[in-house]
Specification:
The structure is a single chain. The chain is mainly alpha-helical. The chain is 71% helix and 0% strand. The protein has twelve helices and no strands. It has helices at 8-25, 27-30, 61-97, 99-113, 117-127, 132-159, 162-170, 174-182, 187-210, 222-229, 241-264, 268-274. The longest helix is centred in the N-terminal third of the chain and has 37 residues, at 61-97.
């Protein structure tokens, strides 16, 4: 699995992801203006001093788009990493423990999944203080239920293999079984799932910000930019389309890379054989 073996679609996706990450990392250097600075008229057209025009308050759209990449990536990636850590650990624990532990964790997971994710997030975030770390935690807990289902399914398949049975017979503990036997042999499908969950987190965060319960002003994020400028569509202003296009661009790029990862690590069986 090397860059040379990547198809053109995956290379385009990877280049797009790296571009967004570069914007996020070097935002203060790249952006022409500060993200909250009012530098022109309301909804000024594209061109001149403002390459993408201005927003509903007269802030430079290009600058806010660049800074928005930082906030969007940080929250979405943090939530995805935490959700995977929680979901994988609990799912693997349920599999190696079995019995009552497996039933309790699985039924609790089913209970959380029975409530639509967006409704659950809106209810919880409406009650809790509006804080970026609380937002990350809520997104991570909700998304971990989906990771738990996938992790348990692949862990169940691996747990009946001979090398796992041999580890049990040697007297290895549960943590050894999880981290030395099951985890390395489930990375193939879980890598693809991580990419999909990351793309979902970007969309989910943008939805929450559009509804006013995501990243709060004056911090720029793409979903919030769509919300701030949505009224401009009535007057033929495209200010809300630019951050919407950025969201679509990043999600498509992530999916292109994920498709390549899934095709490369084609099956769980292949991952086991390589192990």
């Amino acid at each position: 699995m090397t860059l040379r073996s990547m198809p053109m679609s995956a290379r385009i996706g990877l280049a797009g992801i790296l571009l967004v990450f570069a914007c996020a990392i070097f935002a203060p250097v790249i952006a022409p203006y500060d993200e909250s600075a009012i530098v022109g008229e309301v909804w000024a057209p594209m061109g001149g001093d403002f390459l993408l025009g201005t927003d509903n308050l007269g802030r430079d759209l290009l600058s806010r788009l660049i800074y928005g990449a930082r906030a969007t990536l940080f929250v979405a990636l943090s939530a995805t990493v935490i959700s995977f850590s929680i979901g994988m650990f609990l799912s693997f624990t349920a599999v190696v423990s079995g019995g009552v532990v497996d039933q309790l964790l699985s039924r609790l997971n089913d209970l959380l999944m029975s409530v639509p994710a967006l409704i659950l997030a809106l209810v919880v975030l409406a009650v809790l203080p509006q804080n970026i770390w609380i937002l990350i935690a809520v997104m991570a807990v909700i998304d971990s239920t989906r990771v738990y289902r996938v992790g348990r399914a692949v862990a169940l398949d691996v747990s009946v293999m001979d090398f796992v049975e041999a580890a049990w017979l040697r007297g290895e503990g549960k943590l050894w079984i999880i981290f030395r036997e099951i985890l390395p042999n489930t990375l193939a499908p879980l890598l693809g799932e991580f990419g999909l969950r990351f793309a979902f987190s970007i969309l989910f965060l943008s939805t929450l910000s559009f509804l006013g319960l995501g990243i709060q002003p004056p911090i720029a994020d793409w979903g919030g930019m769509v919300k701030d400028n949505k009224d401009g569509i009535i007057f033929g202003v495209s200010a809300s389309l630019t951050p919407g296009a950025a969201i679509a661009f990043l999600v498509v790029c992530v999916n292109l890379v994920v498709d390549w990862l899934i095709n490369t690590t084609s099956s769980l069986k292949g991952a086991r054989d390589n192990a």
